[in-house]
Design a protein that fits this description.
Helices cover about 45% and strands about 15% of the residues. The radius of gyration is 32 Å and the shape is elongated. The protein binds phosphoenolpyruvate and magnesium ion (MG).
Length: about 750
């Protein structure tokens, strides 16, 4: 036996290269291949079995009886060969007959041989055959021999696929090729159907045998350098998030990216004659096989990180770096990603993007908010989704129930279509309610506005049935731009929004950048180091420090609102002086505009967002100075519970209907009512009918919600008696039940309130 796996494999590969390049039928080539391997590995038998019509057929052999070729067939999972293929793993047996799966096939004449080593031949991670060697001596094969067999199997797969000798590979292991239902967390409701597309596409290795080993080595070095650079940059970018789980993932990425063992293994695979791509894939296969034997879930998780990184390395080396957005979507698509940022989501063609499935994700992250705004269903917390589905497979997304069905059969498909029709019907019913007034049964007139942030949102306003835009997130324009939008670009957007809104009010919020809305072109050393960007240099804090930015925005807003009412509010106010300063800055710009004889708004209303709990303690100081208050329950909740709103592990932990939040909101609402200052609730909470019902019970009457929720929330309001829910809420808050959500749900049902 040769000394190292590399030399052994290289010798065989050189021979294989010649066979592959030679003329002749695929059969004659495979006949030569088994002779070559038997010769180089000094084995008495070498056989190739290929998957044809769901059977593993003995296709070529050196050492077994030739009459058995194309005659001996095994099912997937049958005998040793069937086990190797079905389980996608290596068998290395000194005494093959002792293995429980051993099945004797008399036509092969294999009774003379005691030992067997077999490896699966994989294509697109799916088994398409088996390569096996046998010896008369009862011996266990050395690791280097197994390695060599695996490397050869990889090259063979290219040859077999090119000759179309097998059933054709589809990604995914055969044993999981049936329908699969996965539960997740509903982030944006809605139902959709489409084909799976990976946000970061996987690379299929086309060429496995290297022409020039040195050149391949150089390619891998360069790819490693680039990958390490990318990972380092990711760690620097606040956009990726530097807290909690992200931090851990990054740390692991870094550890793997700099792992010498990994690059060494890839290098030695190149030594054996593989291309850079094939070497990366080969090492990954080995890791994958090892992963299957590990029982520790934590370690498995880490192995997925390595898989991610390996895929990244493959993409770099093969020059296929773009996301699926750059390649374009050809069909109705269900996008699959570990996580996604708001700007990344907006890069996709919205006509084709039907749903997004994430392994992470949380209810109030900005990507979820953007998806909700553009009406794309999202399911998060789908454990291992990226490894459970293959590119191009059909997926049914039940965003209403928070589950997905992969590879549905006809029955599942028809059941889903039935539910989808019902869901559309329900939506149509809500659409009918949309344009009716949001008045409770006892005559309390609520205002239902929408949250918006993109130019397109403005034009759909008349159709949404909303009373106006209660929160215009101006930072979305910044998020979707490659460069900082200047005053003119802002002016154009604000003008368009106001025009589309007509007589309806629009509340502009000044930029709230930072947290999970970091901009690559606007960073700061301090921000890069921030451990918790959501509580860092963000929103108004940043705007006050970068007053040029704020001034430009103020001028754009003032000019766009010439002759009209300008409603503007400031995000993340923690103390009243911040509000004063921001307002002062605006007023300076008003003065400037007056001097410059610019047309001024007919009226300016200033508001503060209440989303930092500290501000609630200072309302007595703040209320006399503001025209309105807007409560951002997304941030308020994360700060009240000290629970990162984009941390997927906390996504289901705290409930908006918890007495702590409800009591807190009640205090704010009561205090503002006493001071005669209107309050609008504009976080995601208000867009959920049951939560909105509780808010009415607390005395809230103004809501700003996601457009799709206008119908359901109005339907709830129109079926509710405000006085009764107020009484009930007072009782519930005085003596909170164990499960507030259940108590409110039961109450709604008993009182026929439409809550979903
Ligand atoms: C909020 O925090 O609730 C809010 C409305 O603002 P954003 O979600 O944009 O942070
Ligand atoms: Mg906020």
């Amino acid at each position: 036996m040769p000394l190292s796996a590399a030399t052994s494999a290289r010798e065989i590969l050189t021979g294989l290269h010649a066979i592959m390049a030679s003329r002749g039928s695929a059969q004659s080539k495979l006949d030569k291949v088994v002779d070559l391997i038997a010769d180089k590995m000094k084995s008495e038998v070498c056989s190739i079995y290929l998957l044809r019509q769901n059977n593993l057929e003995l296709f070529a052999t050196h050492g077994l009886r030739k009459e058995a070729v194309h005659v001996t067939r095994l099912h997937m999972g049958e005998g040793l060969v069937g086990t190797i293929a079905a389980e996608g793993r290596v068998l290395n047996l000194a005494e093959a007959a002792d293995h429980p799966a051993f099945l004797y096939k008399p036509e092969t004449g294999e009774e003379r041989f005691h030992s067997l080593a077999g490896v699966p031949i994989m294509r697109l991670e799916s088994p398409i055959g088996v390569l096996a060697v046998q010896h008369a001596d009862p011996r266990r094969y050395q690791d280097v021999e197994i390695e060599a067999l695996q490397t050869v199997a990889m090259v063979l797969s290219e040859m077999i696929a090119a000759a179309r000798l097998t059933d054709g590979a589809r990604r995914g292991r055969l044993r999981s090729a049936g329908p699969l239902r996965l539960p997740g967390l509903r982030l944006v409701a809605g139902m959709a159907k489409g084909v799976a597309v990976f946000h970061e596409p996987r690379v299929v290795v086309e060429h496995t045998v290297a022409d020039d080993i040195e050149a391949e080595r150089e390619r891998v070095y360069a790819a490693f350098r680039k990958m390490r650079e990318q990972i380092d940059n990711m760690a620097k970018e606040a956009e990726f998030g530097t807290t909690g789980e992200h931090q851990e993932i990054l740390e692991t990425y870094r550890m793997f990216a700099y792992d010498e063992g990994w690059s060494r293994r890839i290098n030695s695979a190149i030594d054996s004659g593989l291309t850079a791509e094939a070497a990366i894939e080969r090492v990954q296969q080995r890791t994958r096989a090892r992963m299957q034997e590990i029982d520790d879930p934590l370690l498995k998780e880490r192995m997925h990180d390595l898989e991610d990184l390996s895929n990244r390395l493959l993409r770099i080396v093969s020059g296929r770096m773009g996301t699926a957005a750059q390649t374009g979507l050809a069909r109705d698509t269900v996008l699959i990603a570990r996580n996604l940022g708001p700007a990344e989501l907006l890069e996709y063609d919205r006509r084709r993007l039907k749903a997004v499935l994430l392994e992470e994700g949380s209810l109030t992250s900005h990507m979820t908010i953007v998806a909700r705004a553009i009406g794309v269903p999202v399911i998060g917390r789908l454990h291992d989704i990226r490894h459970s589905v293959e590119d191009g497979e059909t997926i049914l997304v039940d965003g209403d129930n928070g589950s997905v069905i992969i590879r549905p059969n006809r029955q599942l498909m028809s059941g889903f279509e039935h539910r989808m029709t019902l869901s559309q019907k329900r939506r149509a019913e809500f659409a009918a309610v949309r344009n009716l007034p949001a008045k409770t049964l006892d005559g309390v007139r609520c205002s239902v506005m929408v949250n918006a942030g993109l130019a397109e949102d403005a034009s759909s306003l008349p159709m949404s049935g909303a009373d106006g835009i209660g929160l215009f997130r101006t930072e979305f324009q910044f998020l979707v731009s490659a460069t900082l939008p200047g005053r003119d670009r802002q002016l154009r957007l604000y003008t368009k929004v106001l025009e589309a809104a007509g007589n309806r009010p629009v509340v502009f919020r000044t930029v709230d950048i930072g947290g999970d809305k970091a901009l690559p072109y606007l960073t700061d050393d301090a921000e890069e180091q921030a451990e918790n960007p959501a509580m860092g240099w963000r929103a108004l804090r940043l705007s006050l420090d970068r007053s040029t930015l704020m001034k430009a925005q103020a001028r754009a807003l003032l000019e766009a609102s010439g002759g009209k009412t300008l409603m503007v509010m400031f995000p993340m106010i923690s103390e009243p002086w911040e509000y004063e300063e921001a307002r002062g800055l605006f007023e300076e710009q008003v003065e400037w505009a007056r001097h410059a004889h610019r047309k001024l708004p007919s009226q300016i209303l200033y508001g503060a967002m209440l989303e930092v709990p500290a501000l609630a303690e200072m309302l007595d100081q703040l209320l006399p100075r503001v025209d309105f208050i807007s409560v951002g329950t997304n941030d308020l909740t994360q700060f009240l519970f000290a629970a990162d709103r984009s941390d997927p592990r906390l996504a289901q932990r705290y409930d908006w209907l918890s007495p702590a939040i409800l009591r807190f909101l009640k205090r704010i609402l009561d205090q503002a009512a006493a001071a005669n200052v209107p309050v609008r609730i504009c976080g995601e909470m208000a867009g959920r009918p049951l939560e909105a019902m509780a808010l009415v019970g607390l005395g809230a009457e103004n809501f700003s919600i996601t457009p799709a929720a206008v119908g359901p929330v109005k339907a709830m309001i129109r079926s509710l008696d405000a006085a009764t829910i107020r009484t009930r809420m007072s009782q519930l808050l005085a003596k909170p039940p164990k499960d507030m959500r259940k108590a409110l749900g039961d109450w709604a049902r008993r009182h026929n309130v439409v809550v979903g």
